[in-house]
Amino acid sequence: MISTPEGVSLEELLGNRGRRLRRVVLLASLGCVLGLAVFALFHEFPGRPGGLAADYRVFYAAGELIGRGANPYHLRALQAAEQAVNHYPSLNPVLDSFVDPPIAAWVLVPLTHLPFWVGYGTLSGAGLLLIVLTVTLLARDLGWRHTTILAVSVAVSWIGLLGLIDGQFDAILFAALAGSMLLAWHDRSLAAGLVLGLTLIKPTVLWPAPIFLFLALWPDRRRAWRFALGFLVTAAAFLGASRPWLGSWLHALGSFGAGVGSRQPDLAGLPGLLGAAPRAWGLGTGLTAPATVTIVALALAAMVVFAVWMMVSPDWRRVSPVGRATWAVALPVGVWLLAIPYAHPNDDLLLLPLLMLTVGRDARRVHGLGLGLSLTTMVLVLLIWPAQVVPWPLGLLALTGLAAAVWHWRTDIRLTGFGAGLCVLALATLPPVWSFHLLPVGLTPIAVLVVVVEGARTCWMEVGGAGTGPAYFEEPPGAGIAQPVTGA
Questions:
Q1: Which listed site, 20, 272, 386, 427, has its alpha carbon 20 to 30 Å from 321?
Q2: Do the Cβ atoms of 309 and 235 come closer than 8 Å?
Q3: What pLDDT sits at residue 118?
């Protein structure tokens, strides 16, 4: 049985106990995020090679080439175009390569008619507005009240800010992902498909989204097929515009993926972290490396199991449309981001729907004793590595003791804030590690792993386990949600 203090309800525990600690930790996290944002922005001006607009430089050059009918995957032509718009003293064949689909270059053709820095400012400004607007709408429908604080926190967090600094597409992709969820549960399934088709700008990262949103809508066949029609319309338009360069793109993608881990140490998936292991272990990070193949296979197996559970479990039929659509898309996307060998910290903006589900409305699950333990754990991890203040043997012994304590009291409701608190703290502190040269390898994969594992556990508890169902969703009249299980 789940243990609770005598005479204290769950709502009283979540609403009263640890409220002050939760506010302190959340405000401290927001303060760290804001401080990091200010520090980063001050060091980005004036622009320097490899800094401000580094990725937009590649995209702008690719847009120029494809706009005049040239091949953006021809490295020499691409580098010449890059140097013409923003000169670098030296060139990097990996960082100066364009490996996104041709449609990503087509999208930027209108911006190539503007001066380079004006186009970059337009893209980043539009991305910032999309993040704030989409986060606000998504949070509102998930029952959050403090949407402004959440939107500001996301925009200035490192996973949000990095994409804006580099001139990446992550804001567009996040808006497409979250926007399709919003449209789907508001019975605009055709529009949801059209919008989600925008994820084909980066299909290697977001391919699970359309499949799982279709499965989430499948109980209503009409809505599911309307969604599929909308997605296929956008996909057909993109493929039609990109057809002459699809072969070149696939070749460039394969060449880039074969050595991505050895050439780019700042990766967000587990293969990138394993690639930093001692070389004697023989773990590679390329697309065909044994470690990568194993991780990807496990991720695909996990998604298949999740899809089967969605389709056959009676609990899923009782979950609200909001909960069904959000969980169905957010969890597989998180699993895939954990497994792929070419995701970067800025791509983890796409984890936000999963994080919001995991921490609960207004971060209500970040509370109490569990939050205190998660704060202790994160501080200890950072003191061990990268600070190296605590010796390895002592630090590992302390972490083992914490893990044993959490496992022993895992059914105590007072510890429910541990996983949620760890998610918030990990995403707030670990992604900037490599970018600020604290370590030769990024710790973002650890943050992604924490969010995915806790997200999967929360989904199980919400939908079919010993939880109370997605209680922070506004359930439509006449619809039921998963009921609490009395024992565990």
A1: 427
A2: no
A3: 95
